[in-house]
């Protein structure tokens, strides 16, 4: 009887666990749908109020619109690198085909891009909620952090206007989720999809994962001799997943270039070809209003509570932000395109800063 009783108890506990998991998944699915609709509402102006393709600073949208519709019209800069940012346009294409000729005054191309961007923005918001609950033990902080993320200047003005930054930001946060939750099996998938979204994801992901590995090294050192083999095996497994993700991201970029350009281009050759002169744009970025609109309130409200976050978050995020500065200083950009810093830094640090700002608001206002 005691054996049967233990079996029944274990079976009951397993059933309760499965039930809780299903309820949690249903809640996250509901949150995703709500965040998706919020994002679509925030990006509504691109459907029939203004055309980002004709707006100074958003000229890249023309490229992604052409990729989504399969039409020509790519210029020299597109042929150099923008035509390889294919994931968001690929996701936008089914929505474009669905909307074409059916949505009255709404622009079907921008509808497709808005829907694709909204998927990534909603996914990012859900991951903020998940990380807030699992690592900070504060569901309210995760929810408020997600809402703060959604209302940041960068989301309606840079994430939901047909650019690909929403995808890059999602996959960078997915990296943090994978590492912090110990789900390193997801790294190769994230790496490939991130590389198909934007080429800058590759150096960002390499720096991010390496910084995480370095920052968690002491935490994973064995305390006793009998832990040595287990720890070594875990370290080796983690290193293998990380190195595999690096190799696959580079392979994805090479394979994509081979498919679209018909020739082999090494990642180093491709990266060096992106240089526009560098230095001068580094100073221009400091004066760009987009940068200050994004971080003017976000940084002051986030900094006081950053100490509550684990080093395994702060060090990778900080190192990747430093990498963004290096890339902007070296490669430069077009001043009319807005601050390269603002867009990149928000993709890297925006979710963590939003979570930290949420903690301050909750502590201040109860």
Describe the protein.
With 366 residues, this protein is an all-alpha fold. The chain has one domain (2-220, 232-365). Helices cover 73% and strands 0% of the residues. It is built from 18 helices and no strands. It has helices at 2-42, 45-48, 60-69, 76-80, 87-99, 108-136, 139-151, 154-159, 165-180, 187-197, 201-215, 228-261, 267-272, 280-286, 289-295, 298-302, 311-331, 340-365. It starts with a helix and ends with a helix.
Key phrases:
mainly alpha; 73% helix; 0% strand
Largest pleated sheet: none
Q: Which oligomerization state do the chains in this entry correspond to?
A: single chain
Distance between the termini: 51 Å
Classify the helix fraction into a percent range.
over 70%
Order of helices and strands: HHHHHHHHHHHHHHHHHH
* Integer tally of domains: 1
Shape by Cα distribution: globular
Strand content: under 5%
**What is the helix tally?**
18
- The tally of beta strands, per DSSP, is 0
- Mean pLDDT value: 86
Would you tell me the structural class of the helices and strands?
A: mainly alpha
- Low-confidence stretches are none
Question: What is the rounded Rg?
Answer: 22 Å
What is the structure about, briefly put?
With 366 residues, the chain is mainly α.
Secondary structure topology:
Layout: H1 2-42, H2 45-48, H3 60-69, H4 76-80, H5 87-99, H6 108-136, H7 139-151, H8 154-159, H9 165-180, H10 187-197, H11 201-215, H12 228-261, H13 267-272, H14 280-286, H15 289-295, H16 298-302, H17 311-331, H18 340-365
Helix pairs in contact: 1-6, 3-5, 3-6, 5-6, 6-7, 6-9, 7-18, 9-10, 9-11, 9-18, 10-12, 11-12, 11-17, 15-18, 17-18
């Amino acid at each position: 009887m005691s054996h049967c009783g233990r079996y029944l108890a274990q079976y009951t506990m397993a059933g309760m666990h499965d039930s809780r998991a299903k309820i949690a998944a249903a809640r996250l699915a509901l949150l995703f749908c709500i965040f998706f609709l919020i994002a679509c509402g925030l990006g509504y102006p691109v459907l029939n109020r203004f055309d980002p393709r004709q707006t100074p600073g958003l000229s890249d949208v023309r490229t992604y619109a052409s990729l989504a519709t399969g039409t020509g019209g790519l210029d020299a800069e597109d042929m150099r690198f923008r035509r390889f940012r294919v994931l968001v346009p690929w996701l936008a294409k089914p929505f474009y085909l669905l909307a074409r000729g059916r949505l009255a005054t709404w622009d079907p191309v921008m509808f497709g891009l808005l829907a694709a961007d909204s998927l990534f923005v909603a996914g990012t918001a859900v991951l903020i909620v998940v990380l807030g609950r699992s690592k900070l033990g504060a569901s309210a902080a995760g929810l408020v952090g997600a809402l703060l993320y959604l209302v940041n200047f960068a989301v309606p003005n840079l994430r939901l206007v047909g650019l690909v930054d929403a995808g890059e930001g999602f996959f960078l946060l997915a990296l943090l989720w994978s590492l912090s939750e110990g789900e390193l099996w997801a790294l190769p998938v994230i790496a490939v999809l991130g590389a198909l979204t934007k080429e800058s994801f590759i150096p960002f992901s390499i720096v991010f994962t390496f910084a995480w590995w370095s920052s968690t090294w002491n935490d994973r050192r064995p305390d006793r001799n009998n832990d040595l083999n287990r720890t070594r095996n875990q370290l080796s497994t983690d290193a293998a997943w990380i190195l595999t993700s690096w190799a696959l991201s580079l392979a994805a970029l090479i394979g994509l270039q081979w498919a679209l350009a018909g020739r082999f281009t090494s990642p180093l050759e491709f990266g060096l070809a992106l240089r526009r002169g560098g230095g001068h744009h580094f100073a221009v970025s400091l004066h760009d209003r987009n940068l200050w609109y994004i971080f003017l309130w976000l940084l002051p409200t986030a900094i006081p509570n950053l100490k509550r976050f684990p080093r395994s978050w702060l060090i990778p995020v900080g190192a990747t932000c430093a990498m963004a500065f290096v890339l902007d200083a070296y490669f430069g950009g077009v001043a009319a395109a807005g601050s390269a810093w603002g867009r990149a830094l928000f993709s890297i640090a925006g979710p963590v800063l939003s979570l930290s700002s949420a903690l301050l608001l909750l502590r201040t206002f109860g």
